[in-house]
Amino acid sequence: MEGSGRLIAERIQVNKITMRRALLCLALLQIALPVLAQTQSVSPAERQAKSWLDAFNSGDHSKLLEFLKQNRPSAVEHIDDEIAFRERTGGFTLIKPEESTPGHFVALLKEKDSDQFARIDVEVAAEPPYQITKLELRAIPRPTEFAIPRVSEKEAVAQLRQRLEQETAADRFSGSVLVAQNGTIVFEHAYGMADREKKIPNELGTKFRIGSMNKMFTAVSILQLAEAGKIRLDDPVGKYLPDYPNKEIASKVTIHDLLTHTGGTGDIFGPEFEQHRLELRTLQDYVNLYGQRGPEFDPGSRFAYSNYGFLLLGVIVEKVSGQSYYDYVREHIFKPAGMTSTDSLPENEAVANRSIGYMKPGPGPWRSNVDTLPYRGTSAGGGCSTVEDLYRFAMALQADKLLDAKHTELLITGKVETGRGDKYAYGFFERDDNGLKCFGHGGGAPGMNGDLKICPESGYVIAVLANLDPPAAQNASEFVGARLPLK
After folding, report:
1. How does pLDDT run across 263-303, given as a tens digit for each residue?
2. By C-alpha distance, which of 477, 221, 185, 468 is closest to 326?
3. How far apart are CA 407 and CA 400, in angstroms?
4. So what's the architecture of 44-146 in CATH?
5. Is 369 helix (H, G, I), strand (E, B) or coil?
6. Of 238, 205, 234, which is closest to residue 351 (Cα–Cα)?
7. Distances in Å between the alpha carbon of 387 and those of 196, 341, 412?
8. Of 99, 114, 367, 433, which has fewest CB within 10 angstroms of its CB?
9. pLDDT tens-digit profile of 316-347?
10. DSSP 58
C-alpha cells in the first residue's frame, strides 16, 4: 500500500508538470498565432516597403546599398541621393497603411525631423524575390485627422525658437526668420553662418538668395501694367512678342496662362542650362535658347510649374514698359515698398552682406553652391533679399501700395488647382492650412531656400530665408504657421 501510494503521488506530480507544460505551450501558442497570422498577412509589397524604410531610416550607406542590390537594383546608382535625402528629412515614420495587396502597397508617412507628411507608393514583381519595380515618395498636405493643435502666439513663438535652436545645432538650419502680426514684429532672429570659412554669422540684414520668390515681383509687375491698361491678361503672348520664334506658343498661350503655369511652356533647367549657364545674361538670351520649343500640352488645360513661362513674363514687362526687367521692379516695386536690400545683381558683382549658399548634393559636408548659380537672377527667380524686405513687400501689397484693391485681389486669389492641396493665383500660391488661410510663394535650389506667407484673416506674416538646401526655410515656416492662433 505504501508503495502504491508513492506511485500514485508520483503520477499526480508528473501529471501536474505535464499540465503546466501544456498550459505553457498553449499560452505560447496563443501569443505566437497572432504574430504568425500577422506575418503571413503581410503582403510582399508591404514587406518590401517596410524593409526599404528600415534600411533608409538607418542612414547606413552599406545597409541601404545591400538592400538596393537585392531588392531594387535600378536605384543603386542613386544611393548617394537617397542618403542625402535621409539627412535632410531625418527619415520617416510609418503612420498607417492605406492600401495593401500582394503587388502594391500605399501608406502614409511623416518626416521625423519636421511636420511634413508624405505618401509612399510601392509596387513589386509578381514572383520571388519580389523586387521593387516602383517606389514613389511624395510630399502631401498634413491630413486633417493629424492636425497640430494651435496654441497662443506666445507659446507658438516659444516653440519656434526652441525648434530653430535645435535645427541649427543639428546643422539643418542657417538663416533668418521673421514673424509679425498686424504690423508688429513678434519674432525675428538670425541663425548659423553666412560664410563658414570666414566665420561670418548670419544677421537680420544678411541677404539670401530667394529662388522662385522673384515670381511674386514679376506677377505684380504684370498686374501693374494691366491696371495701367497696357496689358490684357487674355491676350496671347504674340501680341506683345510679335517675333517670338514658336508660333504655336505665340498664338495660343495667353498672359493668364503664363501667370498660372498653365501654358505648357516648360522649364529652363537641365542639360542645356548647364551647358550655357554663364552665357545666359539677359532674359532675351533665354528666349534665344528655348524659344523654338512648342507647348508641352494644350495651353490652359492643366497646371505644370513653368520657370520659362515666368521668364517670358519678364520679357513682356520689358517690351511693354520700355525698361529692363531689373529697372522696372526696382522703380515700381522695391522703391514704393521700401525694399532697400532686394535686387537681382550679377553673381560676379560684389554684394554687401550676401550669404554664401551651402548645398549637400550627396553624403559629406556642406559646400558652396557657386558652381550651380546662373549669371544673375531672372523674372523666374534668383534674386536676393532679407526677411525684413519681404515683410515690407507683404505690408505694401496688403496696403494696396503696389496695386489698387481690385488688382491686388485678382493677383492673390487662387485660380487653378496644383494637385498638392493648394491653388495657384498669379505668382502666388493660395492655401488653407488647418484654418490658416495664407498666400505667398517659396523658393528653392541647391544652397538656398525661402518662404513668405501672408495671412490676412489672422494678420500674420511669416518670412524665412536660409542659405541651405530646401526644405530648411520651408520647414521653419510650416512649423510656426501650423501652431499660430487663427485670430
Report:
1. 999 999 999 999 999 999 999 999 999 999 999 999 999 99
2. 221
3. 9
4. Roll (3.10)
5. coil
6. 205
7. 21, 10, 20
8. 99
9. 999 999 999 999 999 999 999 999 999 999 99
10. H
pLDDT at site 113: 85
Q: What is the DSSP letter of 372?
A: G
- Cα–Cα distance measured from residue 425 to residue 408, given in angstroms and rounded to the nearest whole number: 11
Q: How many whole angstroms separate alpha carbon 118 and alpha carbon 68?
A: 21
Burial annotation 33-66 (CB, 10 A radius, 16+ → b, else e): eeeeeeeeeebbbbbbbbebbebbbeeeeeebbe
Look up residue 59 and give its amino acid.
Answer: G
Residue with cell 560676379: 348
For residue 395, count other CB atoms closer than 10 A to its CB.
16
User: Domain-by-domain residue ranges, the chain?
Assistant: 44-146, 153-481
Spatial separation of the C-alpha atoms in residues 478 and 480, rounded to whole Å? 6
CB 264 within 8 A of CB 299: yes
Q: Give the closest residue to 452 by CA, choosing from 103, 120, 114, 214.
A: 214
* Contact (CB, 8 A) for 373 and 195: no
- CA distances (Å), origin 464, targets 82, 134, 217, 386, 442: 26, 35, 17, 9, 9
DSSP letter string over 236-300? Answer: BHHHH-TT-S-HHHHHH-BHHHHHTT-S----S-SHHHHHHTTT--SHHHHHHHHTT---SS-TT
C-alpha cell at 437: 488661410
Could you tell me the three cell numbers for 207? 541677404
How far, in Å, are 61, 75, 131, 232, 251 from residue 66 at the CA level? 9, 11, 13, 58, 53
pLDDT tens digits for range 450-476: 999 999 999 999 999 999 999 999 999
What top-level class would CATH report for the domain 153-481?
alpha beta
Contact status, residue 175 vs residue 190, Cβ threshold 8 Å: yes
Supply 87's cell numbers. Answer: 539627412
Residue 117 pLDDT greater than 50, yes or no: yes
* Of the candidates 32, 112, 116, 205, the residue with the CA atom closest to the CA atom of residue 474: 116
What is this structure's pTM? 0.86
What is the distance between the alpha carbons of residues 417 and 303, in angstroms, rounded to a whole number?
7
E-assigned strand segments in 289-370 = 358-359, 367-368
Are 172 and 200 a contacting pair, CB within 8 Å? no
CB 312 within 8 A of CB 237: yes
